[in-house]
């Protein structure tokens, strides 16, 4: 089937959405699963006999050692979820889609089977199973994001929607919790394991063996019935790079693309830039808040609810339900950026500002809004009032759904596209290292602070204020680039004299006056650009026209020559 038809691509899109929604990010429903594990008495043997004497009949609801084990498991799993993005991305780039997905299926199925057959005596296996579940899930997401390439101008919307589905998949563990009285945790995870057959079928029937190129060639084929090998698919991908230069999303006439440099730039020059460093700080601080909140929520609710198991269950369910709405919140962030990008680029055309600065500027409101949402979430989470946690849950899911979409979008706008994969993996890996702080912070709260997280929360709220520096710096940088003094010289070409001899001249900015000088020619003249109008001055020119009139008309269609200054 040539071009693979719209119905086939829609089937790929919808099954990919279902895969992300039902499997990819289930780890972040950890709070619901902890509630079930505690009912099954996992790690209860670590508790002191009087550890929960103030609790209910079991006397074990507030066992510090038990909570530490669950917190440590989530810390390791969430760390692997981010840190392994870098090597998993390399595997995907190097070995293509089929191999990457088979690895994901193996890891995911091994994890779910391990969880299914764990018991109170073998609970330690969760330290192995949950990180495997996280890595398998993130690899599902990575291989599905390329599906956006099948839908051209809707590509960004689909990518954002998939990230939202990844967030919403945490509701799966809520379903397991609600079914716990009727179906054992073993039965639930065996069912999830059996679904691996569906993953395999989708890999063979609805996914490419290589990569889905962008822009998409007209004769692109994929799936089991495709005659293209991964190598042939890659040849088409190389061919599509020529189309990419004509793509409206990447290049508009006479404008630079976002993140594009006139001269080749190294990966490390961007990795060590202040722009990237502040982005790492921005992502790491906000992500640390989310991970610490999810990993310690069960303990927090137990304290605020005075260890009332029914009340804790109610709030746990409420939190899990709000997570499902991540798939609905995420696209709004992409819509905001797309609208602002169009608006700022239209303004840039009128003012002559660089397209790069206009595109990058569209990320500023999204960066600032994400920081503001996180600040609101952090403040609510720091107030020890149980009913207020409903507001905390809502702010948390909106903030988290904005966070990762904004992260990916900013990297595409701020850095060259050829370095996107490496920079994305690097920022996720570095933020994963920072996320390891959640366990010592949890230990600090449970130990010296005696279950009072106030000082830790105040410290993290202050750190959250630092994240506003990032959008402020980006905005200042965009303003500096948009100002005449901050614009880089352009090299233009036009005809000189009656013979239209090609010549090149450099745009110089001097008090807002752009001057083009044609020297070394009998009909030498100067073009002055003042208030967006070209005026000719030169020897033998009468009233700005004369015998140079044709040269002026030619100069009005000046075209850039990149790389020459």
From TrEMBL:
Any one GO CC term of the record: membrane
Locations listed in the record: Membrane
Disordered, as annotated region: 546-565
TM region positions: 12-37, 70-92, 99-117, 123-147, 159-179, 276-294, 314-335, 367-387, 393-416, 423-442, 454-472
Keywords: Membrane, Transmembrane, Transmembrane helix
One annotated GO molecular function: transmembrane transporter activity
Domain of life, source organism: Eukaryota
Membrane topology note: Multi-pass membrane protein
InterPro entries (UniProt xref): MFS, MFS_trans_sf, SLC43A3
Xref: Pfam families: MFS_1
Protein name, per record: Solute carrier family 43 member 3
Native source species: Capra hircus (Goat)
